[in-house]
Amino acid sequence: MAGRLAGRTAVVTGGSTGIGQEIARRLAAEGADIAIADVNPADETRKLVAETGRRFFSDKVDVSDEDAINRFAARVRSELGSADILVNNAAVVLLADADHVTYEEWRRTFAVNVDGPFLASKAFIPDLKESGSGRIINITSSSYWTAPPPFVSYVSAKGALNGLTSVLAANLAAHDVTVNGVAAGLVRTAAALENTSEAFFEQAVQVQNIKRVQMPDDVSGVVAFLASDDAAFITGQIIVADGGSTRR
Ligand SMILES: NC(=O)c1ccc[n+]([C@@H]2O[C@H](COP(=O)([O-])OP(=O)(O)OC[C@H]3O[C@@H](n4cnc5c(N)ncnc54)[C@H](O)[C@@H]3O)[C@@H](O)[C@H]2O)c1
């Protein structure tokens, strides 16, 4: 049986590791060809996508660099064809509370986590309009509501990404392009562990209604649904996939 995303081309920023890698694997498993833009090599993701039989392209791209993302979009078109799905997943976490965050750290967080999704969206909008079922899916965070104190620049940037999601949805609806966000809770990735601790994960489980650690595939399934025709009438929404930590 053909997958829900057969014949589509999906771009995943930050798809070399963690949640982005699992999103790439899942979208490929559902039939999409995959392009990855990441500052780090995507060799592991390439292998996972190869196992699904889908086509794969990746390039070293800093999503905060407008020229680089525009060059990448042109290369995706020539390697895989016009894009149908853009997943803005690349982000950095620079931990500091308001007393200690430097302006440089604040700016860098916004450059990658907000400018990045804006620039990638802009670069791929012509493709998405052409698609007939274009999708932008932004990976945001339930920390926007829970606001853990050391995440000053990160939480603020995710708030801006939520705003970008709403306004892009309004801009693109007439072209049958939907724009949504998936707000994850604390997800077990190497990066999240590096930024926190095992104790932080245990505390996160305590405040969730679902009493287990959230894994990358708890996010990728929601992304695959939003990318599919089943979600054609959903736009401008942030789907909170956090085990209920913001609904206690
Ligand atoms: N892990 C969590 O607990 C959690 C929770 C909520 C939301 N999220 C969000 O999920 C996404 C992925 O998080 P993760 O935990 O998998 O992190 P990660 O660090 O494993 O993945 C981020 C990827 O983005 C890439 N990247 C970083 N800066 C880049 C840049 N300038 N240009 C291109 N690529 C860049 C990295 O190389 C990496 O491959 C992020 O948007 C993050 O904010 C994560």
UniProtKB/TrEMBL annotation:
Oxidoreductase in keyword set: yes
Keyword Oxidoreductase appears in the UniProt entry: yes
CDD domains attached to this UniProt entry: SDR_c
GO BP terms: monocarboxylic acid metabolic process
InterPro entries: NAD(P)-bd_dom_sf, Sc_DH/Rdtase_CS, SDR, SDR_fam
One matching Pfam family: adh_short_C2
Residue spans crossing the bilayer: none
PANTHER family assigned: 3-OXOACYL-(ACYL-CARRIER-PROTEIN) REDUCTASE, 3-OXOACYL-[ACYL-CARRIER-PROTEIN] REDUCTASE FABG
Taxonomy, superkingdom: Bacteria
Record-level Gene Ontology MF annotations: oxidoreductase activity
Record's protein name: SDR family oxidoreductase
Family: Belongs to the short-chain dehydrogenases/reductases (SDR) family.
Organism: Streptomyces aquilus
Keywords assigned by UniProt, alphabetized: Oxidoreductase
